[in-house]
Structures are given as C-alpha cells and as structure tokens.
Amino acid sequence: MMDNKRSWQGGGSKGPPAKRPSGSGGMDDDLVAQSFEADADVADEDIDLHIEEEMEIDLGEAGRNWERPAAPAINPQKDPLVFQQLEVDYFVGAPNRSVHRTDLLEVPIIRMYGVTAAGNSVCAFVHGFEPYFHVEAPSDFGPDDCDSLCDHLNRRLKERNLKARQSKFCVAVVMEQKQTIMHYQAAKSKAFLRIVLATPNLVAQARGMMETGIKIDSLNRTMGFVTYESNVLFVLRFMIDCQVVGGNWVEFPVNCYKSLAPHDGNKMTHCQIEVHVNYKSLISHPAEGEWAKVAPFRILSVDIECAGRKGCFPDAEKDPVIQIASTITNQGEPAPVVKNVMTLNTCASIVGAEVMSFQTEHELLKRWRDLVVETDPDIIIGYNIQNFDLPYLIKRAETLQVADFPFWGRIKKSKLRMRDAQFSSKAYGTHDYKEITIDGRIQFDLMVAIQRDHKLSSYSLNAVSAHFLNEQKEDVHHSIITDLQNGNAETRRRLAVYCLKDAVLPQRLVDKLMYMYNYLEMARVTGVPMSYLLTRGQSIKVFSQILRKAREKNLLVPNIKVQGGGGDGVGYEGATVLDAKQGYYREPVATLDFASLYPSIMMAHNLCYSTLLPASRLREVPPEDVLRSPSGDTFVRAHHAKGILPEILEELLGARKRAKADLKAATDPFLKAVLDGRQLALKVSANSVYGFTGATIGKMPCLEISSSTTAYGREMIMHTRELVQKTYCRANGYEADCEVIYGDTDSVMVNFKVADVARAMELGKEAADLVSKTFVKPIKLEFEKVYYPYLLISKKRYAGLLWTSPEKHDKMDTKGIETVRRDNCLLVKNVVTTSLEKMLIERDLAGAIEFVKNTISDLLMNRMDLSLLVITKGLTQEAENYATNAAHVELAKKMRKRDAATAPNVGDRVPYVIIKAAKGAKAYEKAEDPIYALEHNLPIDCQHYLDHHLSQPLLRIFDPIMKNAKELLSGAHTRSITVSTPSLASGGIMKFAKVRLSCLGCKATLPPGETSLCKHCQTKEAEIYQKMLTNVNELEASFSALWTQCQRCQGSLHLDVLCTSRDCPIFYRRKKVQKDLGEANAVIARFADW
Amino acid sequence: MFEARLVQGGLLKKVLDSIKDLVTDANFDCSPNGFSLQAMDSSHVSLVALLLRSDGFDHYRADRPISMGMNLNNMAKMLKCAGNDDIITMKAEDAGDTVTFMFESPNQERISDFELKLMDIDSEQLGIPDTDYAATVKMPASEFQRICKDLASIGDTVLISVTKDGVKFSTTGDIGSANITCRQNTSVDKPEEQTTIELNEPVCLSFALRYLNSFAKATPLSHTVTLSMSKELPVVVEYRIGDLGHIRFYLAPKIEDEEMEDEA
Fold first, then answer.
1. What kind and span of H or E run contains B207?
2. Which of A46, A308, A934, B214 has a CA-to-CA distance to A1033 between 20 and 30 Å?
3. How do beta strands A107-115 and A121-127 pair?
C-alpha cells in the first residue's frame, strides 16, 4: 500500500513551501502557474505529511482493489499509443521545445485525457497548435502587406498586455485562398488573411481591433473587417483542425511522442501514462467500424450525507459531512468494482461494501480525496452533485481549512475551481449553477440530464428511480439524519446503507438509460467534447458540424454579430396545422407522415447559407438555376452549387440509415447500445439543424432558410390534402369519398371511410406513394400507422388505438390529453387513461361511463387513495417574490412557519392536496401538505377535485361520444358522500366538540347508554358486526402488506419504517390504511359484548 | 314513516336561509323528540345546532329515528318555491331515498309537492356539551347584526369583552380601529329591545367576524340573540325560534398563531 501511495504522489519535495495563489485566484492564474518549470511541488509536500498520519489507520482489506490495471511500460520507439480521448482542455505555459520549435515564451498547450483499450489512463500534452482567425483581404492587399499588419497588431496588443511575459503576440499574418459560406458565391475562392496569435486570449482582443478598424501602414488607410471563425473556442478549433471528435480514438505513431516514466518526478498528472506530442503527428480515427468501440473508462458515482441542524437545510459552513459513499464502475461491466462508504464515527459492517470509519471530518475528507486520486475515475456521476454534493465538499473543506483537499483533479498541482455560473438556453431555460472545474475528469450530473431529457412530475432520485427502474427507495428526511448519526454504530450503518444506495442508483440509471453510450455517440456525431453536452446548449453542436464541413470545402464561417434584443421582432410564420374535424371516428384513420420533414426539405431544395442568393444579385445566375421558395427567398439549385447544410444532413441521415441497418444485424448487446445511441444522436442532430438557422440569438441565424423551410412544409401539407381528397373519391372508383380530418406540421390524417384496417392500410400506402411522387427527392411521405378507433378532440389533442399491422393493435396513443400532463394529480391521469382504454381498446363505452361514475363516487365517499390527489408544482423562487398567490407558494409559507426543516425550498417541487375551507376561501388558501392533511384527518375538498380537475378532461373526451356528458358529473352516483371529522389537533371547533354516537346501522342518534345500534337495528346486530369485522380484517391485511413492502424497500424486516417519501404512493397508502384501521378498530370496540 | 306539518312554513325557509351558506351537506335527524341538525361548517371552525321540537309542529310523527342526508342548497331551492304564508309538510319513508315537501297556500287554493332526492352522508355526529357560561348577553338581534356588519368593514377579528356594565365589541384593521359598547338597559318597555347581561366573571374573547356575520343571517328568525361565553370556550350565538326550538351557532375563539403551532 505504501508503494501505491508513492506512485501517485510522484514528485520530490524540496525547499520550503512557497505561497500558492489563494483559492479565489482566477482561472488564468492557476493555468499560468502550471508551467513546466513550475515552482517546487508545494502542494505535494502538504499531502505527504498527512498521508504519513493516515497510514496508521487500519483499514483492513479496503483500498486493495482501487487502482486501475497496471500500465505496461511504453516504448515510443516501438509502440504507437492508441487511446480513446474523453476530455480536452488547454493551459498556457512555456513551450516544450523538444516537440515544439518556437521562440515564444508562452504557448497554449492542449491536454487530452483518455483511456487505452487496456483501461490505463492517459494524459497527452499536445503542443504546437496555434490559435488563429481569418479576415477577408482587401482587394489591394498584397503578400508584402502581411508583415506590416502583423507588426501593427503586435504593437497594439503589446500596449494592451504590458504585463505579459511574451516576446510576440501576433505570430503571423498569412494570405490564403478561401471562400465565405454566406450567400452564393460564383468565385471559387478569394484572398483571406489568416491571423495567427500566440495565445487564445489574444483572439478576442485582435478580433475587436480588426472589427472596429485598424490602420494598415503599407496601404496607408484605416479599415474595419468582418472576421471569420473568430468566435470558435480554442479547444474546438483544435479538434476541428485535427479532425478529432468528442470521444473518438486517437493514435500517436511510433517515434512521434515522448513518454514519461510512471515514477518520473516531472510528471504533472495523476494519469498512468503521460506523453508529449506535436499536434501534427496526431492521427484521429473516425468513430466507425473497429473504432466505434468504447474503452473501459471508470465511472465514480458519489453521494454524501450531512448532519443538518434542526430546522435548517445543511449549510457547509456549519454542518459536518458525515458520510461519503462512492462506487467505481468500469464502463461495460455489470457491477461496480469498488463499493465504499466512509463514515464519521463508527459504523457496523455492510455485506458487499467497504466501510471506513474516521474520528474526524478532516481524515474523512482527505481519505476520500485519496480514493478519488487512487481510483482515478474518468467520469464523476451522481444525483445533483453539481449543485449539492461537490460544492458542499469543497466548501466544507474550505471551512475546516483542509487545505490539501481540493486536489483530486488529474493535474497534480491544480486546485479545483468553483464559480457561480448561469446556464441559459432557449430549449432548456435559464438556471444558476455551480461550475466546478476538475481537470481531466468529466462531471455528469444525472439530475441535470434527466431534467433535460424527460418530463417528470418529480425529479427526486426517488421518483426518478421509481419511474425508470421501477423501484422505490427509502427516503430518510434530512432532519432524521442527524438523529441516526448521533445514535450508535447500528444506526449509522443504516444511514450508510441508505447513502450507498444513493450512490448506486445513479450508476444504475446511467446504465439503464444508456446515458454513456448516448452521450458518447452524440459527442462523436456532433464533434464536441462530451463535457459540452451537459454544460452547453444545442447550437454549439450544429455549429461544430458546420465548421467541420466548411473546413472540408475550404469555406469560412463569418462571425455574425448577434442582433441585440432579437427574438420576437423578426419572427416568421411557423408550421401549419389543418383544422381538426372533431369527433369520434369508428372507422380506421390512416396517418401519413413526412419522414424527417425539415431536413428533407432542406436537402430537396438545397437550402443553405452558401446557396442563398440575395435579391440584388439575381442576375449573376441563370434563371433556370434559381429556386424561389414559397416565402419568396431565392436559392441556387443543387446542380449549380450544392449547399453545405444539405450535405451535412445527407451525411447524418445516411449515417443513421447505416447505423439502423447495423443495429438490425448486431447481436452483441454493447454494440447494439452504441448503435442505438448513435442513430438517436444522428436523428436529433439532423432535426436541430433547422432550429439552428432559426435561432435569432444563436451563432448563425439565417431566417431566409428557416422561413423557407416552414413555408415549403406548409405548402406540402396543403398539397397532400388536396391530392388525397381529389384522388380517393367515389368518382375515381373508390369505396367512399375520403376526408382529411386533421394535419399537423409533418403529418396528415386521412379517413378513407372503409371499415377494414387492412384496406385502410393498403389505401394509406398507396396514397403515400402517390403523394411522394409529386415531391422532390428525398422528401417522402410515409404511411406509418392507422388509428382505429380514433378520438379527435381538437388540434394537438387526440387519442386512438394504434395499428401498424392489420392483425393486432400495437398500443394506445394519446397526445395532449391529461394522460401525460404533469401538473395534474394522478387521479386525473388514471381516470382519463382507464376510460380511454375502455373506450378504445375494449370498445365498451358503457363500461367507461360506469368506471368514471364509480371513481367519482369513490372520490366523494372519501375512499380515494390520497396519493392520487396530490398535485405537485415547482417552487421556482422565494415565496416572497411571487407576485400572485399560488397554492403551492402559500403552502410553502405555511409549512415554513410550522417547521422550517421540512418545509420546501426554492427548486423543490411542492406536493399538496386541496382541503375544505370556509366558504368563499380562495383556492390558494385551501392547499395543504398531504402528510399534514392525512395526520390531522383534514377533509379533502372532493367537490373541488371534481369541478376543477376532473370535469374538464372528462367532458373533453366524453363529449364527442355521448349525448349528455354532464350526466357523468351530477348523476345518482354523486349523492353518496362522506364528510370526515377532523382530528382534535386540527384546531377550530373540533377542540370542543364531542362526538355523539350514532347507530352503526341507520345513523340515527343513539340514546345515552347505547354504544352500537339503535333498538330498531338490534335485530340485525350479527350481520352488522360481521360487516365491521370484515372491514377490519381487510384493513389489517392490507396494512401488513404495505408495511412489509416498506420494510423490504429499506432492506430490513426487523426495523421500524422511517421513510417519509412524498413521492411514493405506498407511503400515502400505508398512512391512510393505518389511520382507517385505527378508526375501524374503535368502531368494533363499540360492540361491548362481542 | 316521518311526517311533520308546520303552519308557519315561512320559519323553515328562514332557518334554511340562515344555515345554507355555512353548511353544504348535512344529515337531518328526525326523532320522536324533534327535527334536528348538527353540522360543522366546511372549515370546521364553527358548528351549527338546530332543534325544532316535535311539540312545536302542528302535526309530528316519527315512528323511529331516521337520518335524512340533504344538500342544503338543493333543499333551499325547493323551499324557495313555497310562499311565506304557506303551510309546509315534510314526509319521508323509513327506508326511502327521497323526502317530500308539500306546500299548501293559506286558503288551500294551491297545493304543491316537491320531492328531493336524499343523499347518503357518512359523517359523525358532533355536539358541544352544555356548560355554565361565565357571561351571557342578551341583546336585540338586529343590533348584533349591525355591529358585526359595521366592524367587518374595518377588521377581520372582533374582540368581545363583557363586564357588568356592558359589552364591548372592538376591532382593528389596516385603516384604523373601532369600538362599539352596548350598555345594559333593562328599563326599556319592550323586552325585545333590552340588553341584559348575566355575569359570573368578566370575559374577553376574540372571534373571526366572517363567521359571526354568517350567523347573523339568522336574524329574521328572532328579535333577540343570546351570546354565551366562557374563557377558552366557544361562544354560543343562539336565536330562539318562537316556541318551536332554537338555532345555535358555536364558534371557537381565535387563538394566537404561536399557540396553534404548539398544539400542532
């Protein structure tokens, strides 16, 4: 073990510790500090001292299997180095002159982190790549003027960077023959200037100078320039020019790289293999064939527990970290190789996991840091780690002054950096987050990913795992955690089990949802590093593809100034929606879909930046080569000049077709996962190209393209409707006049008015082919499915039974109906889904009506499971800041008054139920915490649920089918109700009222002395008693079933159930049954003599 | 079989008008003793107790006690159809699911009957035990109604303090405060205009005006209202309905928020 420690520690520790930049030091300071000749290994020395102490702790077997497989000795003269790179970053430092000849004092150095096929970690320092951008050369600019411009820029940049330790700022100005991507250009190329700079931060400065105007001495005039590709991130620039895409395999050939021995004191990283290489010798393998494989990279999943004070959310400056659970999984292996939990204070052992106990937080934190460094993960995952776990650890270490804690990145002397950042994207909204830089390790916060990709009613880990893994997990409220921690080794073990589960679940979710494959493939397809996918929006992905394609074509992308304000002012007409002919269709309805509508329009009509012909330049191209789109914009036809976007799209869709074909042929489950992720990534990328051109605040908006695309789409939908209706009619010998009943963006629904599904399919296919023939390739109308029967409520709202083969229906398909909306209570969803199922699948309208009536009756009789009535809404800001009184906000305030510890905070989703309140009370005053309502037996306002939640959705679906749908809401079934009596603790008059016994048979008031039945019901005593007893027995059975279920979920059948998960339906049922059982027992007790 | 005939049918209409805003659904208990109702309002802050004694009816028959669940709004809709001078008869079978209201005009020219579908309401019967109250104030019902109405325009809560000299109603609101004191006056000739106070010890309690105003809807039933109060007990607002019975409203006193918290 001693040796292991030494191996990652590396470097010597000589000389007195020098002062390091303080924690708040800017990013650049830190980067600069890591030059090759960096001062003595200060941080290392600190680490050294503390590790000596730790060695004395006896950890038994723990830690033995932490390390990666040993790295083979590398011989650059004999072996090429091949690895899959996962993350790329850069820093500015002194050049390594053995691989990069330069006289600059400081240069940018790219670092590529990755894993070899054998599972060894690699960090490659790539030297020699220089930042640059282009401008268009003035017509009279000659090669001789280059030096003059270069000198001038140098002078100007020097003025701005007086403190910089640099010999030269503008390295060179070179003339090159290129062409712009914007608008159709008849000439193949013209002169551009490539301006090469010393370091990436100078690009923005030089761009500013070029744009605002610069004096060119040799021409003796001042002029401003449009810059090209000046807003490309340096790392992306490097990847594009070296044809490296996110997560692909790269190779350094024999004799082209320099390797450092594993124990070399000059090693700067914790990676097993560290090499230096010039960017020119890098070979990048496209992610195809053999190179589609995935290296066994290591994933660390982490979860922490903190002991909060009563009434407050844990605060890193006050509350200790008490447990940290970690699992290490090698990608592709089914189970984690390391399952570890570190606890503060003793903890009983857990089967299948290492438990390490520490006396102080200091030791705990440092040992965990060692765990990260020793296990050397490539990716760190967890649930909400980005906003809670990781910032908490860092802040806590700062508070405790564990100075050597934040060094678990891969760069030895580089401290973790944390700053507040804001993410803003049209697609994902705006939110604040903590940006943490852990050099060389990708962070993947599963919560962020799931929030992006899935619409759920709750994003607690609990709800998410229930949804995807079909597994409830125990939810220990953070106010109980402190009690467990203060107990004994057994209670802490319980907490540790819980903590460990929270670390295991994210890993299982990642596996289940194929996140690693999907994101890896997305990175490979779009060419951006994996870490961009979560931290950046959509547009960078398309931008990366355009840049790559443009480079291939020798084109340059101009840096278009974003128009301030943007957005609404310059909108364009969107997609068209044909009016829905509302009704319940008992005939099969065929759906004709355009396959990848927008991408295929762009391909068919050659819509692109590079084919757009401004109206003023129409004369430059022969009229037969010009295409005028329905929106009035003109584009050059494909045979004259092919566009970039159509080409990108063709490649994407072609690649998707290949991936799908391979997927069909593949048998290996890993390969299948990769291919499926790939085809999905390709589809999403193809569809986002259109959005990119329409994003007015994006990098390259071009509304001519997007508005032409939608205009074509509209025209095609109309055309399809006309053609289908004209062709399929009695006059042409068909069974009936068909009718287009609805159409939306890329689909048309046709009722051929035939009774048979098979015939409708036949006609559908025929019609699709017929219509497709009238369109330019590759636009294709496809017959996809038949809905039979079909309930069309309004536009974007329908339900139907979906058939893709005439033998059997596939499933029920609904859109815009309350089966999916998440701001509703579960009751609405259940009622709507079940009645649709009865109506559409079983064709049992009477049954559906019966079901709805029974449900309403149950609701009014208070027999409804409370979990079905819970509504959740997100608390997006402090309650005080809301302008209006929303129910969940009022409730949050109320709960904070009761107990601040359990009250919801900003960002939480607040569950509530509507309870009865005084007449005329506002809806927002009637919201109550479901658990509070349950415990105090507060009566649920059933009528409110009926009037405000159920009535609208039910009327919508039943109106087209039955004559008097209102009858559903006010029939005989609504005349049986239960008014529950609140418990004493709920206050009000209940504190004073006494319950008077009434007859259990007929409800008449009992005379004093009688406890069970009135004298008229005495004759039926046996029967009534029997009924009550059966009730008790049923409740007892269901309570024990629920209790056992909860015990199983918490993993022990001997302990009390602590869980108070508000997302778990079992929890509410357990609570309600428990209460009902108590009441039923009380009733039984009234039969004195039985 | 249940049957009850009331010559002053108007009384029943007024009774219903006074409680239908407080309670939506309730069970009426028809026992040999009389026709009664106990129900909490939907926010369970107040409780209504109605009693119409059997001997107050012109004809009353209840073979066995039965409980009739009714939606009070629907019942009120039917009673609206009765004239103020009409004679009202209620009829129900022991195990039936409807109740019949028969309205006869005074001169017997017009007889109408309305049948209301009964509801099956599963709820517990509640009552407030009788106690000796520390203070009992009897005052003109219209005066009480006016005080509640006036104060409600200023504040939400009224503080009622009873001393041997009189009863003081006070409130504070955003715009200011108000105090109304009614002195004991037994000298007035007309007993219905008297304000009398029976006092064992002084009492001072606060109540939500919103509910008192609801209770005051019973004013047409009686000339006088009786307020009975004890420390930390609900106030009883009672209106006598001639010889027929009474309607009592119980309202829990307002307790400071902190105390509520502690008990919860």
1. strand B203-208
2. A934
3. antiparallel
Is residue A81 within 8 A of residue A121, CB to CB? The reply is no
The b-or-e profile of A161-178 (16+ CB within 10 A means b, else e) is beebebebbbbebeeeeb
Given an 8 Å threshold on Cβ–Cβ distance, is B67 in contact with A939?
A: no
pLDDT over threshold 60, residue A363: yes
CA distance B201 to B181: 18
What is the β-pairing status of strands A354-358 and A338-344?
parallel
The C-alpha of B105 sits at a distance from chain A's nearest C-alpha, in angstroms, of 31
Q: A570 pLDDT exceeds 60?
A: no
Domain boundaries, chain A: 65-166+173-181+194-296+528-559, 298-527, 560-813, 817-986, 996-1085
Right CATH for A298-527 from 3.30.420.10, 3.30.200.20, 3.40.718.10, 1.10.10.10: 3.30.420.10
The answer to whether B255 faces chain A, any CB pair under 8 Å, is yes
Instruction: Confirm or reject contact between B118 and chain A (CB < 8 A).
Output: yes
Q: Does B159 touch chain A (CB under 8 A)?
A: no
- Ranges in chain B annotated CATH 3.70.10.10: 2-117, 135-263
Q: Measured between CB atoms, does B119 come within 8 Å of chain A?
A: yes
Superfamily designation of domain A817-986: B family DNA polymerase, thumb domain (1.10.132.60)
Work out the minimum CA distance from A926 to partner chain B, whole angstroms. 10
The answer to whether A412 touches A369, Cβ cutoff 8 Å, is no
Residue A1002 and residue B66: Cβ atoms within 8 Å? yes
Across the strands, what pairs with A744?
A577, A747
**CB atoms A1004 and B64 under 8 Å:** yes
* B77–A contact, CB cutoff 8 A: no
What's the CATH number of domain B135-263, 3.40.50.880, 3.40.50.720, 3.70.10.10, 3.40.50.620? 3.70.10.10
Q: What are A274-302's pLDDT values in tens digits?
A: 999 999 999 999 988 888 888 999 999 99
| A contacts of B262 (beta carbons < 8 Å) | none
**Mind telling me how many Å the CA of A866 is from chain B's nearest CA?**
18
pLDDT at residue A17 tops 50: no
CA distances, A946 to each of A560, A851, A867, A949, A969 (Å): 55, 15, 16, 6, 8
pLDDT 10s digits, A370-418: 999 989 999 999 998 988 899 999 999 999 998 888 888 999 888 888 8
Tell whether the model's pLDDT for residue B263 goes beyond 70: no
Angle among Cα B148, B153, B154 to the nearest 5 degrees reads 100
Fold of A560-813: Palm domain of DNA polymerase (3.90.1600)
Spell out which residues of chain B touch residue A991, defining contact as CB-CB under 8 Å: 252
CATH of A65-166+173-181+194-296+528-559, one of 3.40.50.1100, 2.40.50.730, 3.30.420.340, 3.40.190.10: 2.40.50.730
3-state SS class at A766: helix
What the block records as the tokens of A203 is: 């690009």
Q: What is the pLDDT of residues A772-809, one digit of tens each?
A: 888 887 888 888 888 888 888 888 888 888 888 888 88
Contacts of B232 in chain A (CB under 8 A): none
Q: Do A977 and B129 count as a contact with CB atoms less than 8 A apart?
A: no
pLDDT of residue B59: 93
Task: Please indicate whether, in this complex, the C-beta atoms of A921 and B29 are within 8 angstroms of each other.
Answer: no
Listed residue (B124, B125, B133) closest to B237, CA to CA: B133
Question: Would you call A56 exposed, middle or buried from its count of C-beta atoms within 10 A (0-12, 13-18, 19+)?
Answer: exposed
What CATH number is given for B2-117 in this structure?
Answer: 3.70.10.10
* Predicted local confidence at residue A572, as pLDDT: 64
Q: What is the per-residue pLDDT for B147?
A: 95
